[in-house]
Amino acid sequence: MKKQFFLFLLMVGTATALHAQVDMRTNFTPVELRFNQVRPGYSRVLFEFRMPPSSNKINLELNHISQLKALPNLDSLLGVSLKAIKQIVDSTPTDIFGRRIDVRPVDNKVEIRMVSNESNQNTLVYQNGNLNNLKLDKDTLRIIFFPQDEKTQYQKYYPAYLSIHVNHLSDLFNIESNTIASCITLLKSSFTEEALGKLNVNNSYSAVFNLTEQKMIFPNTKMIQKRGNKAYTRFQNNESTILPAIYGSMQYSRGAFVPSFAAGLSYVISDNKYNDHRVFLMWEPYFFFSNTNNQFQTYRNDFVTLRMVEFDKPEKGGWSFVQNVSIGYLAGRRGNWFEPNTFKFSLPGIRNHTLQIEPEFYFNNFFRNFSPTLRLSLFFE
Predict the structure, then answer these.
(1) Are 51 and 165 in contact (CB under 8 A)?
(2) What does the domain layout of the chain look like in residue ranges?
(3) CATH says 2-24+238-380 is which class?
């Protein structure tokens, strides 16, 4: 019965971690899934268009760079959206609160949600003897749309986003009718059909443009000449690379607190400011200590461990769920702390930056001498 229980535990824990690889939309309400499936700034592809001397800007967020080939008429979408929100904007006071209006123009209707940010209600400015309120956040119109690419059916699964950032919502109606078309023309002068064919659709890209001067300001020409397409990488991401890996751990095993050290290689599937996903192949010695007849001895037991780890990086830090699965085999045995042919495995746990806590289990043969423990690890990254 004990074996069956822990086999069930292993299967459930593994399935949970594997399922999470394809379903990252956890703890989202139906409203969030509809209007905020991808949070602002978290899309894989982000293009920013600045409009000096004003502080207004336009962002285009895509799930894949290939969606650039199948954009709808965005100026038309903007016109439909502005018409739909006009009554809301007219009734919204001009104050210090930052607001965002999310719209979904679909099926001959426009769905609308307004979000108000009141975190800056105590920001003030003192100037020329007067104390006034200070507005720091921009007002934003965020349009959710689906690129019409019937070959890949992106319109069915992957939304894209057009965001217009202004000082006040009423400023949205001062945007010229062909502004978005100018953005796309400028964008496609750098991302031509030929250039798009050389880009990996699974990678992250970004660029910043000066719409007033009709030029790209990041990456600059020198960066592109030096790094090629990698110059457009949105953030440092060691995708598909092999890196050295080191971590130290402490666990209570076989009646003693046991330190361990791991060294090996990690294959990076994704590592950026939002997410870390990699596979480790590690040599992992465990150190047991004994003091018999005033003779201090150290016993080293070596495991070879295959580990998969994936976790989101919370914006404000703190503990969060980590999708962790590992399997290890006792390749080198000293003393009688472990039986021959001992295996170990671990299940998902929690993580705070580089500190990770996870349940770990040891057994030999077919779940004989089963021993659970709680493992604390510090990853050196």
Answers:
(1) no
(2) 2-24+238-380, 45-232
(3) mainly beta
